[in-house]
Amino acid sequence: MNHIVIDNSKCKACYLCIKECPKNLIKISSQTNNLGNRTVEFVDPNHECLGCALCATRCPDLAITEVYRG
Fold it and tell me: Is 55 helix (H, G, I), strand (E, B) or coil?
């Protein structure tokens, strides 16, 4: 099962990863981080993640720390 790991302490809420995900699996979270930003969360109940890493390559703050394929 493919999935990503997000380091919310690095997220600056630019939401570029949301726009980049071809399956729309990254959403704005209701939680905030220590910077006061509403961070993002990975939501994939149907296991649709492609493991493409487009979200991670688009993140300017390296907040998406890992992309797992398998």
Answer: helix
The CATH number linked to 63 is 3.30.70.20
pTM, full prediction:
0.92
Residue range(s) defining the domain that contains residue 19? 3-68
Contacts of 41 (CB under 8 A, 6+ apart): 6, 26, 27, 28, 29, 31
Report which of 59, 13, 62 is spatially closest to residue 39, judged by C-alpha positions.
Answer: 13
Q: Summarize pLDDT for 8-32 with one digit per residue, the tens.
A: 999 999 999 999 999 999 999 999 9
How far is Cα 56 from Cα 64, in angstroms, rounded to an integer? 5
